[in-house]
Amino acid sequence: MVNRELKRTLRTFGIGAACGFVVGAALVSILITRYGQVTGIGAVASYRTGSSTDGLADVDSPVIQARKPSPPLPVATSGSSTPVLEAAPPENLARRTFDMPVEGVKPEQLVRSFEDRRSGSRAHEALDILAPRNTPVKAVEDGTIARLFESKLGGTTIYQFDPTEQYCYYYAHLERYVDGLKEGDKVRRGQVIGYVGTSGNAPKNTPHLHFAIFKLTAARHWWEGTPIDPYDILR
Asked: Rounded to two decimals, what is the model's pTM?
């Protein structure tokens, strides 16, 4: 009788212990899942996940590679970022004879626009001469074609050095060059070198020549120098 009661008690205790173990394990699992970050388990999991998905592990990575310095890009006029403007035409330019760069335009038709502002608050530093599309553009003086260049702003452009290679004449927004024109060509004053157009950022319904003059630096780079107002030269 006693043995039977003992067996029954032991069986009941065993079943209770097993149930308690299962319930306890479930509770521990729930607590770890919900509050694991407090104990550090969740924090480790979060770090590992974050390092592969949100880029934190790449903070110290050398993703920005060192780049070789690029040569300065020419701009629509002198290429100088902080130009020192000439107060008046240099004497050695004022004494020279220049042709009007656009055929058929008279000096009295010119409108000063050197200090006008353009997109991005940049200074114009040039003279706009309006004319019908394909009107011949002429070399204002003897000199050398230093560069034929296609740019985003100026479009089809010509850089011409004067005979002394102290100054550069810049012709922009051309429709095209005259046939056969090459870098290094010697040109004469009045010689046709291109045609009025709207290339680059010129309004497509306003053909004109963007004409600039700048004094070259000692390095004689075709893209940089000190701007000079062409209005005072051509008038």
From this structure: 0.63
